[in-house]
Here is the input.
Amino acid sequence: MQLKLEPAPGLHLFGPDDEEIDRAIDAARHNRESVYAHPGFAPVRQEHRHAPVRISGQLPADLRGVYLRNGTNVQFDDARTRAHCFNGAGMLHQLQIDGGGATYSNTYIRTPRFEYERLAGREVFPNYADMSSSGAAGRQRMQLLAKKQAEGLVPRWSALEANPASTSVQYHHGKLYCLQGSGLPFVLDAAFEGGKLLLDGRGELQDWDGGLRVPFSAHPRIDPVTGDFYNVSVDNRGRAIWMAHIHEGRLANCRQVDSIAAGDSLPGTIHDYFLTEHFLVIPDVSLRFAEANLEATGVSYWRFDPARPLRWGVLPRNAQEGDRIRWFTTARPGMVWHVVNAWEETGPDGQPRIALYAPVFDDYPANVPIHTPEEPPARLTKWVLDLEGGSVVEEKRLLEHGYERPSLNLGFVGRRNRFAYLLDEEADGYMGKGVLKYDLLAERQVAYFDYGEFHGGEALFVPRPGATAEDDGYLVDLLMAGERAELLVLDAARMTEVCRLHLPARVPFGVHACWLDPAKLAAMAAA
Here is the structure.
């Protein structure tokens, strides 16, 4: 799906109304005092192509492939938007590991939005902070954009199309998808030279010939056998929840599976969800989204409603026309960003059940200060849903310390597994200061690895070729400290350090990654 950049942007697009809104938002002063003033959130502008990487320790001979991590990287120095880690263009960071060595590359994700704003020389489309912390002035900025679009000054792109594709990156059927959660997927152009993967950030939006008309999740659940994507998202305009299924690069299913009553607020996000053998399990969080929340909070479209318990919705993963989400209400309010795993089992009464594991926030600030000390701790919790009785029969807090951004051996998605790897966000409030290995079945802590002076984003599990044990593999995390960035490699079974790859440049804070093994790289080269 190609979008035209015409009419050519320029300074004539920006006038007194923009200046008045900029003064009201007062981003420069606000950002100096913001929790996002931490230097770890500062962008980088230089792009590298397969720069050599120094290695300390012994790089395992069987660790071969490409590590990719997505994240936001603000394109312009003159801030007109209040800072937030969801603001800005996407940037991919790549480490290619093979033959006992490694190289580092990075590139902006050159979406239509990125290119249009690059030509304009400033941000044109709204950022997350326009809704989370800018109050009435943020609303005015969005209204002014709509006016310019109606006048033909700015492309009439919807939020689906004006998408920075900046949250995650995932592989499917020979292609790489950059995802953001409020827009269409952006499929990267990929090339190979001398066996090395080349990405320059170019690509195109994917809507499967108009078949996808709603946002695509930053966390599609991936079937470990077929590689199929399962998507759940909220259509804000249509006030509905949708699901989609991508099979071998094709949109196999896309349909509305729930509606949201007029006057009710929308879920603040459906950022992540579960996939089991037969079902999708979807959180309906207590953090709500509505323009009316601006009046209640004074700053934000989001508001945490303590009177609204967290719900889990169960939907057949092959949903047919007429299928709707079946909701299970928990005992307390909660906010969920990321989940660990879920599986189907048989209860002691012989009835079908689903066990769920995820970190949950008991409260959440309206300004959505994710990855900062203003964000409260998330605590690992277990729920069990009785599918026959339609109730939550178990709700158990497993850890009191705050851990988030969980990972696991992705070969076990949707089936009973033992180990989760959890990022320690409570140590200083920023990102992750260490990783905990946790035994879900025994409900006990196994081992903890301290990141020391570094902050990490997500401990991605990479299985060892030919592994027979669930934890036989490596944990890899891109760590940041000041001007330094290192890819840490841990032995996941022993939770001990194997080696570090020292990048030639700093990397901003970021989170979600994927691993391309030699088979996936070969499929990409063939495609």
The CA atoms of residues 268 and 289 lie 5 Å apart. The chain has a mean pLDDT of 95.
